[in-house]
Design goal:
403 residues; alpha/beta; Rossmann fold; Dihydrodipicolinate Reductase, domain 2; 9-stranded mixed beta sheet; 10 helices; 17 strands; 24% strand; globular
Amino acid sequence: MWAQSIDRRQFIGQTAVVGAAVAVAGRDALSAERAATGAAADKSGIDATKKIRVGVIGCGSVSGRYLPHLSECPFVEVVSVCDIIPERAAARGKEFHVANQYPHIDAMLAGTPFELLVNLTDMQEHERLNRQAIEAGRNIWSEKPIANSLAAGQELLQLAKAKGVRVWGAPVVVASPQFAAMAKAIAAGELGAIASAKADYGHTGPDWSEFFYKEGGGSMPDLGVYNLTTLTGLLGPAKSVTAMTSIVTPTRKIYEKGEINVEAEDNALVLLDHGDAKISCVQCGFNFFNPHGHEGKAESRHTVAIYGSRGSMGLVGYDWEPLGVDVATEARPEFERRATDAEGYVWQQGASEVAECLATGKEPLFTPEHALHVVEIMTAARESQREGRRIELASTFKWPVVQ
């Protein structure tokens, strides 16, 4: 798998886009171009003999991490960028030599043909924009979450299947060498019978956009989503959820916006039953003082820990920017550090990796079903808080992730 090392930042620029009135025109233009080339296509309808043409929507700060990675990917040609603030699209276009810039998704889908939409907009907009692009015959790479509910996400997958395209979504924590090392240690029985696990991720909250704090936002889909993906990836799909969530800071001062009311949880503790007596918990929030802030490379403690009857294991650093894995067992009670090389993995590699998938047929470790399972966990956690009870889950995904 190809990748380039770039430090993570969670600064996401606010992007909102409208309608789908001219999407069909863009789809027809793409179909005509494919027909004109006469190129052989794989089962997804993508010409595997060429680079995958990519359109990026949402030109805020996260695009400043994705676009360098995409620009260096040998399977990608970035042909367009889009943002409701035209100046931002123009700036990104100039910075990364992207010829086409659009002010909204309608124009983008009707403009220069492309095969893969990379959706980096506000999380509340992902579901709507993903649906519009799928309707227009585009494959999707979406920042988290793919959709706002399990049912909506499953509808998107069915629509994509009907349209002959594919959908994937962040995060890609299961693709790291550290995740693989942890999964293999568990599968080899080094820790004995797995009993429990815990993970946490938090900071004092972003001040550059209000969408983090509005309905559909919150600390779970922004922060907890990483840990939830890691723990379900290691221990298997969750069977049920019990959770408590709260709002610790009811108002926030947002840059260039002023004071806003907080609507989504900024504090959460989620307890998961994975079956086979395995239990895990995730703690996340926007009220966690951390001297390292967002700097993953400076975080040297265990943010993910796994406990078994004959050993324990901890992930050093954040799961989105891991530094190593410590393993201690009955036979070797001192922690042994493993998997210290993160080469080939960065948190923003997902879009490049699915472009490789579309071009070559290689399948990534992360799947849309896993992403939607985590969406269901987050919605179930909120339901658990409202109703004060355990919530059974309906979704699952292929597991184990690492064979």
